[in-house]
Predict the structure.
Amino acid sequence: MTLPHKASPVPDSDPATPPQTQPALICAPELIFDHDAVANQISLAAEDAEDNAALRAAVVDILRDIQNEGRAAIASAFAEHPFAARPLTRSYTYLTDGLVTAALDVASNLLHPLANPTQGERIAVIAVGGYGRGEMAPFSDVDLLFLTPYKVTAWAESVIESMLYILWDLRLKVGHSSRTIKDCLRLGAEDFTIRTAMLEHRFLAGHAPLAEELDTRLKAELFSGSEREFIEAKLEERDIRHRKQGERYMVEPNVKEGKGGLRDLQSLFWIAKYIYSVQDVAELVDLGLFSPEEFDTFVQAEDFLWAVRSHLHLVTRRATEQLTFDLQVEVAERMGYEDRAGRRGVEIFMQRYFREATKVGELTRILLTKLEAAHMKGAPLLERIFRRRRRVKPGYKVVHGRLDVSDPETFLADKVNLLRLFEEGLRTGMLIHPDAMRLVTANLDLIDEDMRNDKEARRIFLDLMLKHGNPERALRRMNELGVLSAFIPEFEPIVAMMQFNMYHSYTVDEHTIQCIINLAQIEKRELIEELPLASSILEGGVNRKVLYVALLLHDLGKGRPEDHSILGARIARKVAPRLGLNKSESETVEWLVRYHLLMSDMAQKRDISDPRTVRDFAKAVQTVKRLDLLTVLTVCDIRGVGPDTWNNWKATLLRGLHASTKAALETGLEAINREGRGNEAKKALREKLNDWSKPALKVETGRHYDPYWQGLNVDTHVEFAEMLRELTETDDPGSVQVRLHPDEERDATRACFAMEDHPGIFARVAGALALVGANVVDARSYTTKDGYVTDAFWIQDAEGRPFEVSRLPRLSQMLHKTLKGEVVARDALKSRDKIKKRERAFNVPTHITFDNEGSEIYTIIEVDTRDRPGLLYDLARTLAGANVYVANAVIATYGEQVVDSFYVKDMFGLKYHSEAKRNALEAKLRKAITEGAERAHA
């Protein structure tokens, strides 16, 4: 592992470019560190120096210049060969070796010379850890072990101190320890981190016999006989690291510590080195632990990950390991990835990243199973907990608790066995043995058109999802081995495909599997409390085959210029019959894929209390059967986006839309009307305010227009009734009523405002909320017949949660000040509406549409654009300035993208039918967005 294994790819626009040969170092050694030149310069400096302090300062100046020149030469060469990771890591090691040995030479021979050293006055300087392995990224730590025969003498202490000061003055991040051999053995026995660091020790300079003795005694007294202990420790360490860093499919991975990252590859090497004393991964092929193809895979994955990590360091000029969104763009550009039709270069780059990470997982399984078979006396490393297994069918055998193939030749004689293997794995509950996985991967070409149309193969594939209660395990393993893409070739383009946005937490293929996990959990009644509607729908009985297949296929159209729902529906039209679905089932799957976003869009982007919204949605779904299927699919799709995407707000919206639509489909679309809803709402209010006098109730129920009664629930109606009564009882015309309450049902804080009506009040409220850092998720504004305005906003904090109750009094105070004009929101927001650096890499084009059909009495202006602080305020202020009356706003946020839908009328209470007026208004809105974006990026 310390020598170049193989070539590294030089990029064109294809992420899988074949390797090309690179030198051992990335450029000429003398450009990195010229030993003779450095020695001459230090010798001249020693002659001129008046004392040790002057000499040390002169040496630091010399080495700093050499260091800067060397780093510049390496970085320049890497820019020319951005995939040349191994020569790069060797080059930084070569540079660091030069600096360290020069510092030791100066400290021991010039600053603290010793004419006749005693036996105890010896030092061996040893590189440990990654530096010892000879692999250094641009800003890697320099880990040193100062080895002495006995306790550190005064001379050794002086040498070490002077040497460290020189290295620190060079701004190197040095990790160091001073130990005897006895110390190393004792501490290594107690601490696996220390033991691992010493496993990769490399002698740099000083007393060589001392370093040789350490090497001999480590192998004999520490490493030998403790192999299983070491392996178990490394596996536990890996599991902890993975839990901390997240799955390899998370879209901002840690290149070093994340699952499928460099640390996983290094762990494999550590284990192999501990057991077999190998110095290079290539030796694992001769030992039979890797096939030549697997070794090539290891090299390719390692080269790619090291290249990515090194670019990260060079971009940020520090030891950065997290591949955040903004850095993904820069690294992709540095590595030569370019945009293609429908996809950005950064997405192509990240797809390559996730595919390499997946391969790392496969290599881990292969090597650990081989070690287990050879050294671990039958005790599995990958599977820690045993339970009684079912007896396997003929043709299979159990090896170390895993399912393997008895006779590969017989197995391959029937190509359907490539699917039966996964069925047997689910039936028995066993993990599949890596040897069987190898067999499958090597024979994917057997999965041809004949097999895809084979009746038995279809049955097995559908049963993997429908029959065994654990579809995730089969689908994930099939996906990682390439079987899923071979059986459904249309699935291959989305494997490891990243969607470059802040909304999706997973790659597209992993998102698909997460959706199916959610469906299986709902079926097993594990989410009844969290998802009562979806659970009751499945309990009532639906076509499970249709649902599972629709979820499997719903995103196959992603990554191309065309609308992925339309393209996906065309793909589903071909794939569903091929999977064995009948004509009716295939048509339903096609419809679900085509409209899989419809319910989510209607619920989150439209006012579901508007009868027209429900009628339009009901006309689209047509039947309760389709409504139920689409509801469950929508729930699974939203929950499959990421761990924090689903919340009570979305649940409430979907439940409300489902209930209204089901009622409309069962009782007739005309049954949904404003008047009927209004009468029910007034009746509910009278029952709640049973202590009010009849005249007071009459005033309250008579002062509001029809939309008010259908747009709010009874608790909010009660809130506004009390606030309006307080307003009418006060003599202050500028009085403002503000009430903030947690709305647990919607995972938000309800902010209610009541005051005398005047132009632009909606914008002022939006500005006040922006100023206190509130994200608006829904807003309703209603004027009364007697000159008041009632605004209801549902808000969340920066984390997407309701505000803590303890913060509400201060929030209320700030809102009062802003609404009374004591604080001008526009001025105060100028310094606050900045987009975080990490989030600036996203491109979200602005789309503005005017819809006069979606509501009976309003024009719906939909603004789809880049989200940022203060955006709603800018848009609302622009509308107010154009004399547009905003009745309500529905806000749907998808990571960095936001869709603000405004229900509006003009100053005469009419819709915007004039194209000229619409164009003028759109121009003003675009100007407000552009100016705000410039401020946000300033």
